[in-house]
DNA sequence: AATAGGTGCAACCGCCCGAAA
DNA sequence: TTTTCGGGCGGTTGCACCTAT
């Protein structure tokens, strides 16, 4: 074509030699030109491309991932919205080469996109089996059920919703959560809760809603948790008494995994704890029970992050959010019988919650609610109900052997750390918990398998804006609830909590543990061996049970506000 | 009718992880 | 042990649409 054009315009005799020379260069430049043309095409066909591409963050990881550094001098990888031309190229590539090996797309098709971008584009938009259009009512119900079971496991949910992508489901969910919150409606319809409840009552039927229950049974085999003492020595309950949930606020797993099954003993106490997500390194200090292998009171760490942090273990140490607490707009008394109104994931851009993050596994609680699970009634809770303090829906059974803690749930981490610690042949019981706070904090790093980046770097500020050092030092194991930093609503509560949580360090010495009066100081339990048959410290399970019950009753009696009592009484669900 | 603000949604980026090479 | 790759998920952005003023 080039030749004919030249001939037509200028005549062969003049340009033939020129053509011969040019063509050799053209051949050499073919690949380069191809990419240039693609780039130009993209720019032309999308008027606002440049703006979008240039806006905002510049990728580092993607550039690295795509090997941009190696492509210096070549066409830079494009970002931003895909054009029709790009889609066509990608489609052609997939048709020709099949899916996978996405990084080869650029190589073979000349598409100036990194492999990941190609994969996402294909998976979310170009896949032929994608179902376009609004989420149907049927799908919506399915999503609700799946979310109740799985939490924010969008990919898993998508696997059960043909034609829908994880991203689509996530977006839908987030939007729904926002909408329901504004409307003051429960995230999970009471009917769904009831249905799930009934479904479970009907037994161990194999079905979509009971599969995980059966998986959970696997966990029940793990009777002999050998949790190192230190794993729980800093564990304590802090809860906002004004945020007592109703039974309908109970996690589903509690409803039909524990509450209905009187056979559950506290062997199950931690059987189904799991992460709502894989904790990122920077979050591990907050999320991981690995933290508990240190002397850092894990749950206290949340106290100062009321607006910045999600509580992957919302059963403990609910932060006090003065805004929410004042407005009281999301309390259980707002909608009786509703499930966690804040449940679910929500964009941090939602103004009414500030930067509060809402990543929750199924039927988990936000910080506005989780503080007092199982303490919703003045009646004496069965020890079973203690489960409800700590449990969230199960995801998977725990293999008998260890799995990586970084992708696993809390229980897995507990077990993992337990084994790690046990296997280490070190005397890890209280590395020196009689030492000072700082010492404890310092030593903690020795046993903390998941040091954070800012730990390692001595970074003074955590990702939450809170001094990491202060996190480690502000809280003395068990013994420090700093009044100035307490999130509790009243000074009275502060005082009580302080009294409850102050144990002379001498008590923590092994030889003195027998002296602890657990009926008076049940919180001391959390510093001891909870599991297995560890009676090394003169504590058997019955003692633990009694003491734990005493703690809960004490807390619930003292902290349950009148309003909450009334609400609980009205719906009659608080006694379960 | 024009405008501003709120909302819903699609689409993308960034960080992280596990598996495989 | 390190690197690469595919994948998961949280978060963000921009735009279209709606509604109140």
UniProtKB/TrEMBL annotation:
Pfam families: Myb_DNA-binding. GO terms for biological process: anatomical structure morphogenesis; anther development; pollen sperm cell differentiation; positive regulation of DNA-templated transcription; regulation of growth. Keywords: Activator, DNA-binding, Nucleus, Repeat, Transcription, Transcription regulation. One of its GO terms (molecular function) is DNA binding. Residues 74-126, 127-181 form the HTH myb-type domain. Residues 74-126, 127-177 form the Myb-like domain. Residues 48-75, 555-576 are annotated as: Disordered. It is found in: Nucleus. One of its GO terms (cellular component) is nucleus. PROSITE patterns: HTH_MYB, MYB_LIKE. This is Transcription factor. It comes from Sphenostylis stenocarpa. The lineage of its organism: Eukaryota, Viridiplantae, Streptophyta, Embryophyta, Tracheophyta.
């Amino acid at each position: 074509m080039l030749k004919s054009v030249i001939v037509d315009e200028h005549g062969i005799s003049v340009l033939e030699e020129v053509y011969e020379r040019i063509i050799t260069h053209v051949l050499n430049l073919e690949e380069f030109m191809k990419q240039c043309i693609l780039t130009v095409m993209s720019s032309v066909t999308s008027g606002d491309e440049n703006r979008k591409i240039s806006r905002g963050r510049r990728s580092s990881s993607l550039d690295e991932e795509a090997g941009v550094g190696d492509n210096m001098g070549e066409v830079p990888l494009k970002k931003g919205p895909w054009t029709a031309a790009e889609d066509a190229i990608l489609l052609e590539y997939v048709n020709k080469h099949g899916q996978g090996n996405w990084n080869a797309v650029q190589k073979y098709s000349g598409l100036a996109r990194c492999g990941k971008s190609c994969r996402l584009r294909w998976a979310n938009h170009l896949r032929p089996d994608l179902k376009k259009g609004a989420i149907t009512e049927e799908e919506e119900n399915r999503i609700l059920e799946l979310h109740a079971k799985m939490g924010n496991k969008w990919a898993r949910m998508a696997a059960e919703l043909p034609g829908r992508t994880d991203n689509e489901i996530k977006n839908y969910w987030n939007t729904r959560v926002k909408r329901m919150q504004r409307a003051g409606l429960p995230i999970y319809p009471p009917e769904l809760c009831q249905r799930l409840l009934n479904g479970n009552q009907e037994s161990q039927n194999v079905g979509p809603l009971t599969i995980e229950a059966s998986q959970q049974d696997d966990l029940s085999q793990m009777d002999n948790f050998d949790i190192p003492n230190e794993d729980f020595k800093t564990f304590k309950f802090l809860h906002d008494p004004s945020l007592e949930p109703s039974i309908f606020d109970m996690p589903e797993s509690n409803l039909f995994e524990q509450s209905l099954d009187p056979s559950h003993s506290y062997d199950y106490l931690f059987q189904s704890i799991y992460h709502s997500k894989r904790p990122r390194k920077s979050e591990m200090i907050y999320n991981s029970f690995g933290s508990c292998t240190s002397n850092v009171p894990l749950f206290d760490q949340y106290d100062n992050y009321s607006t910045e942090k999600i509580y992957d273990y919302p059963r403990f140490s609910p932060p006090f959010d003065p805004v929410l607490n004042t407005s009281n707009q999301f309390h259980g008394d707002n909608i009786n019988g509703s499930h966690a109104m804040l449940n679910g994931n929500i964009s941090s851009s939602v103004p009414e919650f500030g930067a509060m993050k809402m990543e929750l596994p199924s039927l988990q609680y936000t910080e506005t609610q989780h503080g007092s699970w199982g303490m919703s009634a003045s009646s004496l809770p069965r020890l079973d109900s203690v489960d409800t303090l700590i449990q969230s829906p199960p995801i998977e059974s725990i293999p008998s052997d260890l799995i990586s803690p970084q992708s696993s749930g809390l229980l897995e981490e507990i077990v993992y750390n337990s084994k790690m610690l046990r296997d280490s042949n070190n005397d890890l019981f209280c590395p020196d918990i009689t030492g000072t706070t700082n010492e404890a904090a310092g030593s903690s790093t020795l046993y903390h398998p998941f040091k954070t980046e800012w730990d390692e770097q001595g970074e003074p500020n955590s990702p939450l804006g809170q001094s990491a050092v202060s996190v480690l030092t502000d809280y003395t194991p068990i013994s420090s609830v700093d009044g100035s930093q307490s999130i509790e609503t009243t000074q009275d509560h502060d005082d009580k909590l302080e009294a409850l949580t102050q144990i002379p360090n001498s008590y923590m010495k092994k030889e003195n543990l027998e002296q602890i009066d657990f009926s008076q100081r049940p919180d001391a339990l959390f510093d001891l061996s909870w599991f297995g048959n560890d009676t090394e410290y003169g504590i058997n399970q019955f003692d633990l049970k009694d003491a734990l019950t005493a703690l809960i009753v004490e807390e619930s009696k003292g902290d349950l506000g009148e309003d909450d009592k009334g609400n609980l009484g009205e719906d009659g669900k608080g006694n379960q």
